[in-house]
Amino acid sequence: MNALKKVSDLFILKSGINLTLADLEQCEKSDKDSIAFVSRSDYNNGISAFVKKIKNISPNEPNTISVALSGSSVLASFYQAEPYYSGYHMAVLIPKKKMTAVEMMFYAFCIKSNRYRYNFGRQANKTLKNILIPAKIPKKFSTNISLEKIATVNKSSIIKKTVELITSKWKWFQYDELFILKKGKRITKAHITDGDLPFVAAIDGNNGIRQNIESVPLHEGNTITVNYNGSVGMAFYQVNPYWASDDVNVLYPKFKMNRYVGLFLVTLIRKEIFRFNYGRKWYLERMKESKIKLPTTSKGIPDWKFMEGYIKSLPFSGSL
Question: Structural domains in the chain?
Answer without folding.
Answer: 4-134 (3.90.220.20), 167-319 (3.90.220.20)
